């Protein structure tokens, strides 16, 4: 790492020390200031920073910081969802009070555009969002502006989160009829996963590599062949805020593309499709027959000024295996 990169990592580690000493991660002046500083430090694109190659000490700080960010994000969403549900009229008319609402608008548009490109115009009828939380903004944005006839099933393990989220959409005559909430551990959901055309996996479902891969393996086992799995990842210093999802983690899926935004949308987006079960003669291949090699050398990096993002495109499987 260069001197500037080392200074950036030191700044992040110093902020971690301050944040870890906070008595509470619930929204307050001190919490808001420190997390705003953390985000503004991590958000400038810097592909030269590879968190996976840093020292054990920095790796440990990163793991702890992701957990802390997840907890703080949960408190923030719970706080604003509670405020929103107190409005007498439709709470969805006031979503702009949430400080990161514009980010979700941009992320929703990005993910819809990627879906459109990779589904060749097919409009999903049933979408699942895993880890929707008390403020399910991705589902709300997609349902309100992009997928206006689609049914959304939101899964979260926290009953209080689902109660708030359900109350949040209950006053909207359209969204309330197309949005459902399920309080369940997704690892206990099996057959019903086959009914979804698209499954979104929230960034903080599986906060470390092992947990994330375990969830992905479960989805691969139970999703319908051809269904799309959309995940959120992180790139460069943004990986101090969210876990990284790599192509090698998506065994049994065809990775279609990975998008690394360079604006204030923090999360990268990974689009993949569950591979079909193939048969050879009288032998039907199961999941073990679907595992693709981690051919990361075939990733093509493209800088797109028009979309202000970095894109990694994955070619046809024949090209990957050539």
TrEMBL record:
InterPro entries: Nicotian_synth, SAM-dependent_MTases_sf. Coiled coil: none annotated. Gene3D superfamilies: Vaccinia Virus protein VP39. It catalyses: 3 S-adenosyl-L-methionine = nicotianamine + 3 S-methyl-5'-thioadenosine + 3 H(+). Its EC number is 2.5.1.43. It is an enzyme of class 2 (transferase). Keywords: S-adenosyl-L-methionine, Transferase. Synthesizes nicotianamine, a polyamine which serves as a sensor for the physiological iron status within the plant, and/or might be involved in the transport of iron. Belongs to the nicotianamine synthase (NAS)-like family. This is Nicotianamine synthase. It comes from Camelina sativa (False flax).
């Amino acid at each position: 790492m260069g001197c500037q990169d080392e200074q950036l990592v030191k700044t992040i580690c110093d902020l971690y020390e301050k944040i870890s000493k906070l008595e509470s991660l619930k929204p307050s002046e001190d919490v808001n200031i420190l997390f705003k500083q953390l985000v503004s430090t991590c958000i400038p694109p810097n592909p030269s920073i590879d968190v996976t190659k840093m020292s054990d000490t920095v790796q440990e700080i990163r793991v702890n910081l992701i957990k802390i960010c997840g907890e703080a994000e949960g408190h923030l969403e719970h706080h604003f969802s509670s405020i929103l549900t107190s409005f007498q009229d439709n709470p969805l008319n006031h979503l702009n009070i949430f400080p990161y609402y514009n980010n979700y608008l941009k992320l929703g548009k990005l993910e819809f555009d990627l879906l459109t490109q990779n589904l060749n115009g097919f409009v999903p009828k049933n979408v699942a969002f895993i880890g929707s939380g008390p403020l399910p903004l991705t589902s709300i944005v997609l349902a309100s502006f992009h997928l206006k006839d689609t049914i959304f099933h939101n899964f979260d393990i926290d009953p209080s989160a689902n109660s708030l989220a359900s109350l949040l959409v209950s006053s909207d005559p359209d969204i309330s009829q197309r949005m459902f909430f399920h309080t369940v551990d997704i690892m206990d959901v099996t057959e019903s996963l086959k009914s979804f055309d698209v499954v979104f996996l929230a960034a903080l479902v599986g906060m470390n590599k092992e947990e994330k891969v375990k969830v992905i393996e479960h989805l691969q086992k139970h999703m319908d062949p051809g269904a799309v799995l959309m995940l959120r990842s992180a790139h460069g210093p943004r990986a101090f805020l969210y876990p990284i999802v790599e192509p090698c983690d998506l065994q049994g899926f065809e990775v279609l593309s990975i998008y690394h935004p360079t604006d204030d949308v923090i999360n990268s987006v990974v689009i993949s499709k569950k591979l079909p079960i193939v048969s050879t003669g009288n032998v039907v291949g199961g999941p073990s027959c679907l595992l693709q090699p981690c051919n990361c050398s075939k990733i093509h990096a493209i800088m797109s000024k028009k979309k202000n993002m970095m894109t990694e495109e994955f070619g046809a499987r024949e090209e990957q295996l050539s």
